[in-house]
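User: quick one, fold this
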Amino acid sequence: MEGFQNVSPALQWAMFIVACLIILVGIVAVFISIWLTIRYIVYNRRNNAFNLSGREAARRILNDNGLQHIKVSTFGSLLFGNSYSHYFKKVRLRRLTANKTTITSLAMGAEKSALAILDKEGDKDMRTRIILTPLMYFGPFAFIPLILIGVIIDIILFNFSGVVTTIAIALGLGVYVVSFMLSIMTLKTEKKAQAMACEIMRRENLATEEEIGMMQELYKLYNIQYVNDVILEFLQLIMKVLQFIAKLQAKGKNND
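Assistant:
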């Protein structure tokens, strides 16, 4: 690899393999995004049979399950998207999702309300997700600051021996790996909520069987895209770590 002549062959091969994986996953991500966008547009133009908006569907499901205290709000959806917040006791829906009466709006309103039901029922996975949510969201952001702190300490106290920097990289990577695992756990609770949403739709006659099938297709595509995005971010992080190590290795050999 150009610019890394002084880097060990093993590290060069590792970077090459990760780069190939990033390209492969990126290509898959593009196709998934295109297909999801097409289905989203189709279902976002088709009104549901009972003319329920995302807000109305969410409110009805919450009320029917003794969760009248949970708010349905658009506030915060710009940052967090369609989501459920245990800490703020509310279901967030994007403005268009909340107000439109489409299949997509129905699917999102029902699923996020189902997350609130899982919370109320004390679902084990949901409880773990709630406790570890701060780490899941802020863990990736700690990676760069940890490395910078390690480099600064290395320069000031150890004349940049590389030991503290390596430890900081390992620590930052460990935090990111934990965050990655929590992201997979998040998908597990989302799938539970999706299954519950479809069951509620069927049991309470809030959607036709055809509409439930459409909702299930949307959920499946969202899940695939979520997993693909998480894997892509993880591979990109590994590449950054490998590049950083390669620069340190090349610098060390040049100094020799």
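User: anything notable?
Assistant: Residues 209-255 form the longest helix (47 residues).
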